[in-house]
Amino acid sequence: MKAERYFERTGSVNALPPRAYFVPSGNEHDAFDGRSGDRFTSLNGTWKIEKYESILDVPDNFCELKPSGEIPVPSCVQLHGMDKNQYVNVWYPIPYDPPFVPNENPTYHYQKTFKLGKNRERTYIVFEGVDSCFYLYINGKFVGFSQISHRISEFDITDFTAPGENKIDMLVLKWGYGTYFEDQDKLRFTGIIRDVYLLNRPEEHIENYAIETSMDGTVKFRHLGGAKAEVTFLKQTKEVSEGEEITFKVEEPRLWSAEDPYLYNLVIKCNGEYIGEKVGIRTSEVKGGVYYLNGKPIKLMGVNRHDFNPHTGAAVTLNDILTDLRLMKELNVNAIRTSHYPSCPEFYKLCDRYGFYVISESDLECHGVTTRDPYIDYFKGFDHMADDERYEAEIVERQKHNVIVNRNRPCVIIWSLGNESGYGKCIEAAAEYVKSEDKTRPVHYEGASHIDKAENEEKYYSTPLDFRSFMYPGYEEFAALKDDKKEKLPVILCEYCHAMGNGPGDFKEYWDTINASDRYAGAFVWEWCDHSLIIDGKHYYGGDFGENLHDGNFCVDGIMSSEREITPKAFEMKKAYEPVFMTFDGNVLKIRSRQYFQPINALLTVIYKNDGKEFGRKQQPVSLAPNEEIEVGLVGSHVKIASLTLTEDKGLLTDGHEIARSGHTDDGCFKKGEVAVCEVVFADNGRFIEATAEDTKFTIDKTSGEICSIVGKCGEILSSPLSFNVWRAPIDNDRNTTSWKAERLRYLRSEAREIEITDSAVKVKGILCCAPFAPAVGYEAEYSFKVDRVDIKVDYKAAEYVKDLPSIGFITSLDKSFNDVKYYGFGPNESYIDRRLSSIKDVYETTVDKMEVKYVKPQENGSRYGTEFMEITDGKTAITVEGNFSFSALPHSVFDYTDNMHDHELPERTATHLRIDFYMSGVGSHSCGPELKKCYAVPLSGRGEISVAVSEKNK
Ligand code: GAL
Ligand code: MG
Fold first, then answer.
1. Rounded to an integer, what distance in angstroms lies between the CA atom of residue 505 and that of residue 382?
2. Closest ligand by atom to 525 CA
3. Pocket of ligand 1, candidates 184, 420, 926: which has the most ligand atoms within 8 Å of its Cβ, to mutate?
4. CA 806, CA 738: separation in Å to the nearest integer?
5. Residue 386 alpha carbon to ligand 2 centre in Å
6. At 134, which helix (H) or strand (E)?
7. 425-470 pLDDT, tens digit each
8. Is the CB of 89 under 6 A from ligand 1?
9. Mind listing the pLDDT tens digit for each residue in 131-172?
10. Residue 435 CB neighbour total at 10 angstroms
11. Is residue 495 within 6 Å of ligand 1 at its C-beta?
């Protein structure tokens, strides 16, 4: 087809200028629900579709042809077998050659018919999102062209249509000029990804308006275009014409906040149209280096949210969005950054209604400029487009489709110019534009933090932005920001706690800092959910679709799974974001509200436990004014657990929902099992030493110095030796795997060098080693035998060349009938030295299957930190371990988790795999975040002590 190549330049053709989002209705009754009203006709549903390899393949008369396939709209073509999926993060999916895109640019001919009645007035067609750009034809005539995937494109098609049947033909292109500005880290989808509908509007109508409020109750309505309208607010009606503004005043206004999302009704009436607006009265501003909402220095407890559904990709339903919002509320999230493009307009209405603070981000990311040549200096390359005025129009244009569209939503408290696009003239122009268009909200953009402060101090401190925004800073660097005297901006983390795989281990690190000063406005977890696609019940990610350019499982980095299961890491976030601080101070529980506007009315339940048994619980209603602290007297016990639950439904939350939970466990309250000594009978048989201690026979293999057999009354217990082990299946945050691999740590095995038998013990001097290296770890172990028990003491020291140890301890395997687990340690979920805010040290019962946390890419999981006692049993025999350790008992071995790339590739369970770690490395968030803090790493020399005992069950 010979078409104008609009897709290789900036701008749209014949699309109407952006306006505030609203759906008018023909009657007052539907004013607030225009989509149910009589002026709205949805065009979602089945469309016809034909794929062409290139727009050049499309015949000139394509509108006359009937496409051979069908596709639901909205949807992504990749998920309907029409193209391969591709996941890329930083780099561009096409050769970097702006404004050109590949000539083989898959082009989709979409077709649909619709009927119009006789009594129509003006007819508009609205597309809420088409990735990446499209030509629109109605009844065979070219109407226009639009690009920017997450913008609303509206066309007046009155003159192209007639009563009766009409036909839409569209050519949707995979790539366009916008591809250079939409390099967001995500699966790259194509198609009509959001709703399509018609609006029937009167000849003369209101086109655009802005609503602005202030804390004193002033509600300003600015008429920005179109016919004269009547505006009714709190029973007062005023007329307003284009260019004018009117104000209303609410005495003692009830302010909007995420804590109390109170909305007032405003109705616009104009030539038979009714438009309902829910108005939240609030202010959002930065003053003196602090961010204030309604005058209070609130904290944004945020997540980054993409539109994503593991089955339908970027095409999400309102129900999908509502599911996200409900889960976010359940997890105490109060803020969302719409990474990295505006969400669909109804999303914002839900956030208004249920109470979320939104950073609405423009559809802009030019990250791929940093990788446009294979040797480029990443940071030097970053400003390439941002500082080139050829791109200014496009970068500014992209702001309009965020600000003008969503400006009437109280939930939007901050505008974000985009993500990872570098810094320069175009960004400054974008900031200026946004500020001139909307003076009621501060502006955010993280890219300015990459200005080299040392080289360009003045520029760094004088950017036209309202926040100093970072992603993934070092903990100390972050904490030092409040003391930077030159810094005049409040600090925000637009991304932190990179939630990829097992992690993140840094909620506490960051929030201790954020809570300590009003200069920190809050932080947004990267990211809300995994982006693995689920096909036939299995999870897939980058590289699974045959792409030769991809970023593997970097899209599987959510705090929630892609199907929105609450993961152990999500509980950690919930804890960091609790609306109260609860602290145990002796026999006093202090509860302080972290809210700013609303009282907290909840039921407090305190559970008292000794030795794993509950001996009492007390409930009482509590009511806390904002920031109030109350004290509750407690009685003495080893373990105290305090839980706050709602006593009525509240927005998306239901009566009984737990909003906060804290526990306190006395140190040293665990009583070790009775230890009886007995005569130990040794037999030294060539390779093996047998030690019989009452009813149990332990065998030590002299080659390895390890216990290779434990025979109790019911026979052999171990399926494999109790082997020294330093390996853990690398988690995504284990960037040190380069040294682990270079040092071949997974192959280390123990060699005994000296063995000595004493009265009741065997002492081993040995090494952990593998070819071709010198020993990696030297150790001295002592096995002391008591009645049906062995006490193991190990002193170890890593060789100088060893940079880092994943863990140190033992692994073994047992028959899979060993399934029931009981422990006293940090639970009930997976816990690590740096990820246990939400864990309480207590006695828990679980099973091997339940202990496993299935990460899409298999990795170390299921550990329980700070364990002093664990027991595992098959119902007949029990093994108990005492000491101070981390452990896991899992259906798969450490090597199964190491060697498989997808959870669905893990083999059937054949055994129970037990690991006891004197030390287990923290999890951190190094996949994208800072290096693991030293205090959470495994010491390179140290001592471990455990006792392993065998007993009969039910005896
Ligand atoms: C950030 C980026 C996100 C995502 C993340 C890594 O740099 O803004 O979009 O790519 O890193 O998962
Ligand atoms: Mg990026």
1. 29
2. 1
3. 420
4. 12
5. 14
6. strand 133-138
7. 999 999 999 999 999 999 999 999 999 999 999 999 999 999 999 9
8. yes
9. 999 999 999 999 999 999 999 999 999 999 999 999 999 999
10. 17
11. yes
